[in-house]
Amino acid sequence: MNNYALILAGGSGTRFWPLSRKALPKQFLRMAGKDTFFEATIARAGKIVPEENIFIATNASCLAEIKKQLKKSRVPAGNIILEPKPLNTLPAILLGARMIGLKDPQANILVLPADQLVRDARGFKESLRRALELSARGFICLVGSLPGTPVRATGI
Asked: What average pLDDT values come out for the chain (156 residues) when binned by 10 residues?
């Protein structure tokens, strides 16, 4: 069983206005550090699964920015899955899982949003590795954290 990551990166830029907008949704902003949320998600996923096993579900309005930001990685451009119509999270996950499943019917898939701020990278990585181990044994795993306080945007 091979491990894959499906990164959800199809936001419309409406929930973090005025910093994000349709042309530049939240996942493409530099909020904490030198990388955008999307670039940081790709880097985190690449420490858990091979980069060639990272897929991105997105919409046409985000495609150019995704291709631009993927240049820092070895994720194949062919691993970008375009939603025919943006229908939110569940349809994006189903489409991505179907496309990965066609490539590898025994795929073990992590689904990660592209707009997370992860402060404890080591703990996050360990949680995802444990989830993959449990998933390989037939369990469905949901990894999350309790929200603390809102993060203030700086340096934008």
From this structure: 93 64 75 86 94 95 91 93 89 96 95 88 92 92 76 54
